[in-house]
Amino acid sequence: MLDQRQIRAARALLDWTQENLAERSGIARATIKNVESGLTLPRLETANALQSAFEDAGVEFLPSSGVRMKDRMIDVLEGPDAYRRLLEDVFTTARDYESDVIVAPAAASRADALLGVDFVNDIMEKRREAGISQRMLVFKSDVPDLTQPLETFRIMPDAYFSPYPLYVYGPKIALVCIEDPQKVIIINDARFAEATKKLFEFIWDRTEMPSYKDIKKK
């Protein structure tokens, strides 16, 4: 079970505040503060939740209170909530790393149908409130339903799109299968994320912004 030194060290590695850890783990900040200061010992459920939050972010725990970052990490999310869990990770990671989010392709209609319009709108609003910028390559058929500033979109010919969206955010790349069964593969490696982002920039600079005349009247 984690001890207080490992918790403090893991937070330092990730540059997380106690508030960040509380949000990621679902454990109250006051509880985390008491555990870290040695005032209380964590219950097994609390320790497991904290450890899972750290491990999801790439921390590896070693014997004798050792803590280190994994050199590379691949996470696989599966099940009916995989895409939803990805979008939540996109938000928290982009916020924590103060990074933008890029998506190709951003299949707006498919996301709305799968996750529900309310959930998608809530995620988008949270990104805006957190100051997270985003850019998305979209299908031409999705243009009439776009609601964000059109400067954040570019249209690519359908022939060049894969049906499986790609996300780049912070040090992560995510490959998404939103069909049944849902599956998401997340690669946590800043070098690969930067290389993928360069390819995105090449495409972005050579595609066109949607036209406001093509947007549906709301």
In short:
This protein is of the alpha+beta class.
Tell me what you see in this structure.
By secondary structure, the chain is α+β, with helices and mostly antiparallel strands. The protein folds into two domains: 66 residues, Orthogonal Bundle (434 Repressor (Amino-terminal Domain)), CATH 1.10.260.40; 141 residues, Endonuclease, Chain A. The strands form two sheets. Strands 3-9-8-7-4-5-6 form a seven-stranded mixed sheet, sandwiched between helices. It has a two-stranded antiparallel sheet with strand order 1-2. The longest helix is centred in the middle third of the chain and has 16 residues. The radius of gyration is 19 Å and the shape is elongated. The model has no long low-confidence stretch (mean pLDDT 88).
